[in-house]
Amino acid sequence: MIETTVLDYLRDRLGVPVTMEVPEGASGTFVVLEKTGSSRQNYIRRATLAVQSYAPTLLLATQLDDAVIEAMLALPTLDQVGACKLERDYNFTDTETKKYRYQAVFAVTYYE
User: Fold this and answer.
1) How many other C-beta atoms can be found within 10 angstroms of the C-beta atom of residue 23?
2) Which residues of 44-66 are buried (b: 16+ CB within 10 A; e: fewer)?
3) How many C-beta neighbours within 10 Å does residue 1 have?
4) How far apart are the C-alpha atoms of 35 and 49, rounded to whole Å?
5) Confidence at residue 5, expressed as pLDDT on a 0 to 100 scale
């Protein structure tokens, strides 16, 4: 699963907790990975991954987002990943919980 591959990769590269869902009562700095779509053609798989960077301040969320982008753009150094393209990133502050976050969306081409 590409989610497992990327989850382990980001944990090694970022030095902050990386999960697939927001931990209950979470605060501080952490990253949440979510697959929002996928396709498959001729044994080549593509996934759209959203990576949310949470932090106590908007500036720290922006800085973490930049670190996520740099890490994800280096994802093709893994044998099973052919390409990773940043589609967009933007302020995605959760107004309900008042938690600062940025979201970066990537198109990943991979092999399994």
Assistant:
1) 12
2) ebbbebbbbbbbeeeebbbebbe
3) 10
4) 4
5) 95
Alpha-carbon distance values, 22 to 26, 33, 72, 75, 79 (Å): 7, 9, 20, 23, 29
Enumerate residues 6+ apart whose C-beta is below 8 A from 33: 3, 6, 7, 10, 18, 19, 20, 49, 50, 51, 52
| Residue 20 near residue 10 (C-beta atoms within 8 A) | no
Distance CA 79, CA 91 (A): 32
Tell me which DSSP letter residue 75 carries. G
CA 23 to centroid of chain Cα atoms: 16
What is the pLDDT confidence band of residue 66, given thresholds at 50, 70 and 90? Answer: very high
Structure confidence at residue 90 (pLDDT): 97
Average pLDDT over residues 54-62: 96
Please say whether the beta carbons of 51 and 84 come within 8 A: no
Which residue do the tokens 């779509």 mark?
37
Among candidate residues 103, 8, 102, 2, the one with its CA nearest the CA of residue 47: 2
Instruction: Report pLDDT for 106.
Output: 98
